[in-house]
């Protein structure tokens, strides 16, 4: 069974190599595809040095665009592992995400990460995402509605594409998988990545994330309405 890890990355030269090394250390993983989202640093070179195949985008496509490009490139994989580029050595814990998908007990596994002590999140984005998923995704209550650490079967990949733009990508994945009648397992994973701080850039990031999630939820609600009248 072919398992391909897709890692969207922008300006992650500091952690790209250690993340790739950790993923390649997972026995079930066949290959790592790093989607370099027009980085302005040595992200692509570091990822390639560590053993990844690098797909370089000519211009910044955002996280959703990078994920879509990666899934398109990995279309022949039996299972796709989606991981962030800033996980570093903790990416090795993604082996726990693969287990339920490989054994067939889940179509999608979502990583539930420990809450970082210095997290700058105020919970508004997560609350919006969780509420939207519950209302649009058949009552599913997500513990980690925004988690980007996921394993998907080929059937799940087909159900969630095309990937929604921006930071609403994960929310749309969850809703579309649930609407397709697929099974989602949330799995605790000992992963760590860079937390958003309580400073001006951090609050600006949260604001963009909130707006992206809100737009995606509106689009998903309209999709459901169109299908009901179709």
Q: Overall 3D geometry?
A: globular
Largest sheet report: 7 strands, mixed
Q: Level of helix content?
A: 40-55%
Spans of at least 5 consecutive residues whose pLDDT stays below 50 are none
Using DSSP, what is the number of strands?
A: 7
Distance between the termini: 38 Å
Per CATH, the superfamily is Spore Coat Polysaccharide Biosynthesis Protein SpsA, Chain A
Oligomer: single chain
Structure described in brief:
This protein is 42% helix and 15% strand.
Q: Helices and strands in order, then pairings?
A:
Blueprint: E1 3-9, H1 16-24, E2 31-36, H2 43-49, E3 53-56, H3 62-73, E4 79-82, H4 95-102, E5 108-112, H5 124-136, E6 150-153, H6 154-160, H7 169-179, E7 184-188, H8 200-229
Parallel strand pairs: 1-2, 1-4, 2-3, 5-7
Antiparallel strand pairs: 4-6, 5-6
Core attributes:
230 residues; alpha/beta; Spore Coat Polysaccharide Biosynthesis Protein SpsA, Chain A; seven-stranded mixed β-sheet; 8 helices; 7 strands; 42% helix; globular
